[in-house]
Amino acid sequence: MPDGMRKTTAGTGTAMLDITDLHGFYGESHVLHGVNIDVRQGEVVTLLGRNGAGKTSTMRAIMGIMGKRTGSIRFQGHELIGMAPHRIPRLGIGYVPEERGIFSSLSVDENLALPPVVKEGGMTVPQIHALFPNLKGRGATQGTRLSGGEQQMLAIGRILRTGAGLILLDEPTEGLAPVIIEQIGVAVRALKQRGFTILLVEQNFRFAATIADRHYVMEEGHVVDMIPNDQLHANMDKLHTYLGV
Amino acid sequence: MSLQTRDTLHEGLAMRGGSPRVLLTGALLLLAVLAPYALYPVFLMKVLCFALFACAFNLLIGFAGLLSFGHAAFFGGAAYVAAHVVKEWGWAPEAGLLAATAAAGAMGLVFGLLAIRRQGIYFAMITLALSQMIFFLALQLPFTHGEDGIQAVPRGHLFGLFDLSQPLTMYYTVLAIFLGGFALIWRAVHSPFGQVLKAIRENEPRAVSLGYRTERYKLLAFVLSASLAGLAGGTKALVFQLASLTDVTWQMSGEVVLMTLLGGMGTLLGPVVGAALVVTLESYLASTSLPVPVVIGAIFVVCVLLFRRGIVGELLHRLPGTGRPRADRPRTGS
Amino acid sequence: MSQLLGIPPQALFGQLLLGLINGSFYALLSLGLAVIFGMLNVVNMAHGALYMVGAFVAWLLLTYAGVGYWGALVLAPLAVGLVGLALERTLLRRLYKVDHLYGLLLTFGLALIFEGAFRHHYGVSGQPYPIPDLLKGGTNLGFMYLPTYRGWVVAASLLVCLGTWFAIERTKLGAYLRAATENPTLVQAFGINVPVMVSLTYGFGVALAGLAGVLAAPIYQVSPMMGSNLIIVVFAVVVIGGMGSILGAIVTGLGLGLLEGLTKVFYPEASNIVVFVIMAVVLMVKPAGLFGRER
Predict the structure, then answer these.
(1) What average pLDDT does the segment C10-34 reach?
(2) Could you state, in order of their start, the residue ranges of all structural domains in chain B?
(3) B334 CB near a chain A CB, below 8 Å?
(4) Which end of chain B is less enclosed by CB atoms within 10 A, N or C?
């Protein structure tokens, strides 16, 4: 577990995740066209972009759960392209998918315990309960009976148990009420403080601005810009054009 | 959910609308007319009966995307009906065939009403289970004579005129029946009805959202398919003068699947080719010591793994300009 | 009380016991089918053939290797499970990306091969398999005579069914299985080797069929076609119960066996088709099956 290093500017620190010229395909359709991204240890980095820009596909490419990939994805020195999909998370990458991926045939406790522990130093269940008090006392409930926000907490919580140092968070605020988004934000900041490295896909750019160090902007399957969080205000107009808001 | 099939409108006979197609059709017809002078009529009639059976089955799987695993019930059930009314009630052969077709159609209506309530593999399992019920009925009902079947069915005189005990007369009658059935299927596939079926095969929810009452179309296709399978079964009973349990077993349902798969699902000629091959193979194997089911099963496995387009489908796929290559459809939702 | 509805109780309970035994086999077989279907989306048409192979392995072990019933009870399911593993790895695996119906067709072909090959070698007549010494004899329960072996079959099947239910619904491994049934990609993205799980699931499912075959060997004779018609009834059982639930498969299997037994008492002519009639009724009333979820 990395110990609370914080990076606010690009260009320093070790690259934990280094993606170069990544192309990705679903069957015949070519969805990623040369993505370049690097994430340093302890950083929170967001992928911004419109629907269909390739943000989720980039995450799926990292996890090895998309059809064909070319280029390079290096995680702590390991090349992920060509690696069997079930080995990738074992290196210490946790995946919180879009739509949360809570299993309806599993109870809350079973959902929480499902992902295998891959590294030492993961959070304990009481620590997770402290981070997400809503999950406490709900262990026997069917996973999908939780509210959307609680399901999101469960989806994040179960990854924290595994000891993964890099967490891929795909749209954690999608469809949630503002008060719940606030809760998720608090949790993500807490994770950052604990030293987790986070790659975050967000449509909710205001949410992203409150927690991220840097922002990558994606369009049509590749990265078109990188904006450090402290230069966000200066780049507002540009960003609005990118995102079409 | 449907098996991968070919778009027959453009690829069915590969040469639609051109004079080569007319030539091909003419050549095939001539071949069919002359065939009994070169080959045993009984063998040819068996091929034609199974070809019609397979074409009827293909109407469902190839054009509506419905896998019925119980078509033996219609084929074999109708054979019993034809045999019974002709032998026990003294009906004329044409009346016997009509009765067989009608009985199979009625059975198809009942099966269809139940089976179309579920899709995909459930549809297959339901038709399979219902046809097994027909098998047990055939085993137990008195009129089917259990293991013996209905034997020595007289062929009689067609329309009181043509003596069907003459092999050639019987052959041309069977050929006419086959051609009639085939033409009906051709017509159905190329009608607006056929278009809706294809739309259902490709994407049923979309067809529903376009306002089609897809159940009705599926049911009609099922009844039509069952009736024609019944016609084939009734004809076979006249040809062989026998209706037996073999034709109502679930292995028979599987055999017609194989014929269609081997020839090419969703192609018009595929089932005919497949039926001819399987019937030929079986009569060849009968003279060897090789176990028939093992060979048939092995062909099944090979077809499913390596040869899902079937012979005619593969030919059409390779012929230039007859269609774009289409990859196997990825499975939906995993 | 010498008559129940005009039926001597001995006959009634005797048929109910037979029904319960058939029901045990239905439960074991439909359980395996349901587990396989959940994970692989394959309707395993070879299930009946592999049940037969299980019985034959027991018979072969006894005849050629002198391995008795208790050894066969372990070895035969193991052998069938290994056959299943090999089939999944070499054949079924190639079909996951195409329509599910191809899986059904492939396993149908496999069923033909297995049954055809055994019939070619051993003929259609059955081979007797003796009841093990420990389970010979029976007990008079007062209202009926209970042959020990038949009691054992019911008890053993129930135990295996409930054990399977427990393993799937209450253990960590079962949680993996349930999760992978729902969303294999995500489970893979958590670091679990799903392809291996799929192979093991198929192996386990058919091993249950093999086990049923061994249990059946002393009751029915060991014959190449013993699974051929049985499996269709099991399909009907699965349609009636719905594929959704493990417990549903067990309960439906036992219930329909009993019902078949009752039909044998009151209207024997219909006993072969009663399950199919019930299937038709259930389809009209609740198309997804008694325990199934519409999808």
Answers:
(1) 90
(2) 39-248
(3) no
(4) C
